[in-house]
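Changelog note: in this version the structure field was regenerated for every chain. One regenerated record is shown below for reference.
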Amino acid sequence: MGRQMISEPEATLHDEPFRTRIEDLATAIEERPGIEVDEVPPTRSSRHLYWMVGGLCALIIGIAEVGILLRGNMLDAPAPPPEVRAIYEHDPCAARMAAVMDALTAYRLARGKPPSALTALYPDYLAFPPVDPATNQPYGYEVIGESISLTCPLSDTAAPADQGSARPPDA
């Protein structure tokens, strides 16, 4: 169906009661007293914004606290007693073992976990292979949970006397 065009004089005749009602309604609205509002209530979107900003702040604070705790645990390691330091100052195995421990710390900071074997430290973290310079034996290395155990290998001269064979001496 097509649209019918109404001529101007015809349109005003039919729309007069409607126009009168619209004008009466507009006048009634203008005469009505306004409602005073002290504060506009927050919209839903602004509440979500506050929650989002608060959540991000809490997340950042939590990450900072974890970083402080992790760093504090690494830096608060007690220093060895002077007697122990004196024994190991002139020991080539202990001196090199300190460099290996520094390399293990750097590896853990870079990758988030200790290596599965000490050979992973050479050549990126250590300038020398991780072996004892006196015996040319690898260091004892074990990861236990979050801790690392590193020991110098026993040399033949440093082995206890009772560590020989398990059978009794011949008579």
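Spot check on this record: Confidence is low (pLDDT under 50) at residues 157-171. The longest strand covers residues 140-144.
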